[in-house]
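Page 42, continued from yesterday. The earlier attempt failed because a stray header line got pasted into the input along with the sequence. Redoing it now with the clean sequence only.
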Amino acid sequence: MPQVRCPRCGAINSTRAPGYPFCLGCQENLARCGYCRFFDEESAVCTHPLMAGVFEVSADATPPCAHHTSRKDLQIRRRWIAVLVGAAMAAAVFALGYGLLGLFSHPAPVGPKPKLELAVEADYRASVVGEPYTVEVLIYNRSGAVVEDIGLGIRKDSLDALYMRAVRPKPLDAYDQGDWRVLSYPEINPWERRRVALELVPKRVGIAHLVVRLRSGEKESHGECDLPITVSETEDETEPPSGRAPEESER
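This time it went through. Structure tokens are written below.
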């Protein structure tokens, strides 16, 4: 499954790209349950033999599942890859010729705005009340420009259920801004990938939602993620079902 078409904007995304599963065209999260082949739309449940019942799923949910597989209607078939590559090459040749033609009569175009991508990674298994649970936030600068004044926001109501015990690396500053707790970080260089580890301690059993957003400069928005975290009472409850019946005891 090397390529997936975004159902929102139609952009083609490589599943091996650093910013996947966030669409290059509109930042849609392509790892939603509703885009997975194991999601039953009629009953709104997961049909995967190992993950069924592990998470609270819905068409818009994005649990940290390692078994997400895009629906067949979103996958790009191989025979179209050559056509797309050929079209891209033809467009590039045309653009190059047009650019050379107007080189001496038009000013140089303004470069694209700096673009950051936001992703969240965590163990797909449930967390345990009172035990540390680490979530890694990935910030990726996909542009050739330096981006300054990085602000990683965590929604305050997320911290009602999750105590933030530590952050690595330590932010330059931490302050409240409306409904958000903002962690301030230094500039990020072109094509740099930066990881921020949040060490969280769940306060109660249930489904906790960690909502994070990324901004820079004068409130330039670079996306928002909602990570549902299943919190159990004991560690034994965090193991996903094996799909097998328990063995009979020896007689």
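Notes: The domain at 116-237 is CATH 2.60.40.10 (Immunoglobulin-like).
Reminder to self: strip header lines before submitting.
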